[in-house]
From TrEMBL:
Belongs to the BROX family. It comes from the Eukaryota. It comes from Hevea brasiliensis (Para rubber tree). SMART domains: BRO1. Residues 29-414 form the BRO1 domain. This is BRO1 domain-containing protein.
Length: 414
């Protein structure tokens, strides 16, 4: 049913730390990079020469492009003269061109599906390279890379553009709407992988998949994509004079519903990923409590006022926790000799982060100056009022694999 080989290079026991992840609006936990494959030897006379050459050419194109794109994708920074995204789109198209031909190996009970060894470099697994003689492993790796490219594209679009004079432009509504569509597309790739590709692996082989492709990691990335889509919606609502407080609270509560826990990641990329999730979760809960408290504060009873103060205090504590997690994320060591640039230590605030950093301290001084909480932060959070229960409204795109390339009908030899 397919064999596996994993190799671990010298990594000091910590795997590979990302040397510099650039400016981050959307954390992409490392792209898995395919290694070259010789298609000619395993198949012998099982496939025609034309089909073998086509498979080889399509995959070689991906190997070259992915190797070039990965360093750029992990260190993005938008400037007024940077167009960005074109190489990502080219690689995405190359993957889409490869899939229909690859599926000829994986589907329809093809006996050749286990003849070829596919090898990929991992990012979130200390076993840095994983090789499997299973075509569904290749399909899963391709879909994972397509999802990571989508998240990278969303990150690039969400970064404020810096002009030559250092001025930061405001994110346009068009760009933010495009980002939401990209998040849903990424979630669609990941959700399809969980629901339809992982079941293709027998249990004994599934447990040997690299951590990058483990079900828990794929699920966490899917939830992250959906949650950040809601985050963009909340940022748009904050900037809109038409959005009500109730709408903003609902969006913030949707983001705060799911705390992604239990990620089986221990190396440098994994630790960065966990810190990013902690940062965004605390930020979401801070926003949810802020808007919940604001709505309660409109009530006329003493109980409403007291509950509003408790909610606002929780928002303040969570905002501080979010800031700490944000700072930890941006200064976490990659290598001991890696210098931190100023923009890594002090990331540009935008959207919900910018709003909370400005609004909560101002509201505290104006509304809560005479109601300083006597308890510590933990007690504040334990006694905070319950948030309304709103499930995520965004759903992953309904992705479907393409049809098997018709060239398989003509080129499989009996």
């Amino acid at each position: 049913m397919g064999c596996l080989a994993s190799t671990q290079k010298n990594s000091g026991g910590n795997g590979r730390w990302p040397r510099n992840v650039g400016e981050v609006a959307v954390f992409v936990p490392g792209m898995r990079i395919p290694k070259p494959v010789d298609f000619t030897q395993p198949f012998g006379d099982g496939l025609s020469r034309d089909l073998v050459e086509r498979l080889s050419a399509l995959r070689t194109r991906i190997v070259v492009m992915a190797g070039q794109e990965a360093p750029r994708a992990t260190k993005p920074r938008r400037t007024a003269t940077q167009h960005g995204g074109s190489t990502m789109a080219d690689l995405q198209q190359a993957l889409e061109d490869y899939l229909p031909v690859l599926l000829g190996l994986a589907e329809n009970g093809n006996q050749l599906k286990h003849e070829l060894q596919f090898s990929w470099l991992n990012q979130e697994d200390t076993a840095e390279e994983t090789t499997m003689s299973n075509s569904w492993y290749e399909v899963l790796s391709v879909l994972h890379l397509m999802a990571m490219l989508s998240l990278s594209q969303a990150n690039l679009l969400l970064l404020p553009i810096t002009s030559n004079d250092g001025h930061l432009s405001k994110l346009s509504e068009e760009r933010r709407r495009a980002c939401i569509d990209i998040f849903l597309k990424a979630a669609g790739y990941l959700n399809f992988s969980i629901q339809h590709v992982l079941p293709q692996f027998p249990p004994e082989l599934r447990k040997d998949l690299p951590l990058d492709l483990a079900e828990g990691v794929l699920q966490a990335l899917c939830l992250q994509a959906l949650g950040q889509g809601v985050d963009v919606q909340l940022g748009m609502a904050i900037d809109s004079v038409k959005a009500t407080m109730a709408v903003k609270r609902r969006l913030a509560c949707e983001m705060a519903q799911e705390n992604i826990e239990g990620l089986p990641l221990t190396n440098g990329w994994g630790e960065k990923h966990k810190l990013f999730i902690q940062w965004k979760y605390a930020e979401a809960k801070a926003a949810a409590y802020y808007y919940h408290g604001s709505i309660l504060d409109e009530g006329n009873t003493e109980t409403c006022k007291e509950t509003a103060i408790a909610a606002q205090q929780a928002a303040e504590v969570l905002c501080k926790e979010s800031n700490k997690a944000c700072e930890s994320f941006h200064i976490t060591l990659r290598f001991h000799d890696s210098p931190y640039s100023e923009w890594e230590r002090n990331p540009t605030l935008w959207g919900t982060s910018k709003f909370l950093s400005e609004k909560i301290p101002r509201d505290k001084s104006s509304k809560m100056q005479s109601n300083e909480d006597p308890y510590n932060n933990e007690m504040i959070l334990q006694t905070a009022p319950a948030l309304p229960d709103f499930a995520l409204s965004l759903k992953p795109d309904e992705y479907q694999l393409p049809l098997v390339d018709p060239s398989w009908n003509d080129h499989i030899q009996s």
